[in-house]
Specification:
With 318 residues, the protein is of the alpha/beta class. Helices cover 33% and strands 28% of the residues. Helix 4 packs parallel to helix 5, helix 5 runs antiparallel to helix 9 and helix 7 packs across helix 9 (305-316).
């Protein structure tokens, strides 16, 4: 099969910038993941900033457009990648749909509000255009392993999960809410406790509780900073514990006898595994290729954002 033609919209951090001066394997940006893939041909990028367009055109020989509609009309890509600012996703998704690609790969979140997300999902379903969302952890084996350990009961009954996050409920916490839905399903109860500065007036950071009738309690703690990039996850079970720490490592613990207090138990660290975030986007594009070439299922299909935004709506409107 010949390479799949792709166009990239937006050359900011996740589009191009994170790899601009980075040396190393893998890719932290859509641009590098596409350029290094044997499955795709990056045939054009759209970007508002003149200096980035000039740099990409001169350095890589890629057609760089100011007008995304001109690019889509001239290049007629099979895959369109949306890596622009959050508030532009819905308008660009609508524009992309008019050009009838086979698939659109959109940065999270699809939109900022429940209704607009539901509407765009309906439009894509009716047009039979596939839609994938970049909730990064869906494309990492380390987070698939966590799901397997929870589902198999390896860490026992999970009773408590804690998330720390910053930089907005929709922009950043949606990553971890997606994990919650993936690991545990839709919460039965939502209790919002407080709100803080996030990414401006339209995307605050909330502290809230999610409850399940099965007994799992999940707490999200929103930090009061728009500049702090920080996330930790702590999953406590009756037979073990899993923690994602600030060093981007996953720590696995088992329950053992407490050597100091007879008859009591404690968590003992058994293994620490670094998470290779630079493999997420290459994995995502392999998944997209497998979907288009062989009919494989998408790892993070757009329709799953519908339930995610229903939970976000419950948090905001309490």
């Amino acid at each position: 099969m010949s390479k799949i033609r792709a166009c990239l919209i937006g050359c900011g951090d996740i589009g191009y910038g994170f790899d601009r001066h980075r040396v190393g394997d893998g890719a932290l940006t859509h641009f590098k993941a596409l350029m290094e893939s044997e499955r795709f041909e990056l045939c054009g990028v759209a970007e508002k900033r003149n200096e980035l367009r000039d740099e990409i055109a001169e350095k890589f020989g890629i057609r760089a457009y100011e007008d995304l509609e001109v690019m889509l009309e001239e290049q007629k890509p099979e895959v369109v990648v949306v890596a622009s600012n959050d508030e532009t996703h819905i308008p660009i998704l609508n524009i992309a749909l008019k050009h009838k690609p086979r698939l659109v790969f959109c940065e999270k979140p699809l939109g900022l509000k429940k209704d607009e997300v539901n509407n765009i999902l309906s439009e894509y379903e009716n047009a039979e255009v596939k839609l994938q969302v970049n909730y990064t952890r869906r494309f990492l084996k380390e987070f698939h392993n966590i799901k397997q350990k929870i589902s198999s009961g390896e860490i026992g009954n999970v009773s408590s999960v804690t998330f720390y996050y910053s930089r907005g409920l929709v922009h950043n916490a949606s990553h971890y809410l997606d994990l919650v839905h993936w690991y545990f399903g839709t919460p039965d109860m939502v209790t919002t406790l407080s709100e803080r500065e996030g990414l401006g007036e339209h995307d605050k950071s909330y502290t809230f509780r999610l409850g399940y009738t099965a007994g799992v309690e999940i707490i999200f703690i929103g930090l009061d900073s728009s500049k702090l990039s920080f996330a930790e996850i702590d999953i406590a079970g009756s037979a073990g514990r899993i923690k994602f720490n600030y060093r981007n490592e996953i720590e696995y613990y088992r329950v053992v006898e407490n050597p100091n207090y007879r008859g009591f138990q404690m968590y003992e660290l058994t293994e620490t595994i670094p998470v290779r975030f630079e493999s997420a986007l290459p994995n995502a594009y392999e998944n997209i290729f497998d979907c288009l070439a062989e009919g494989a299922s998408l790892s993070c299909p757009g329709f799953e954002s519908k339930k995610l935004f229903e939970t976000i709506n419950r948090i905001i409107n309490q």
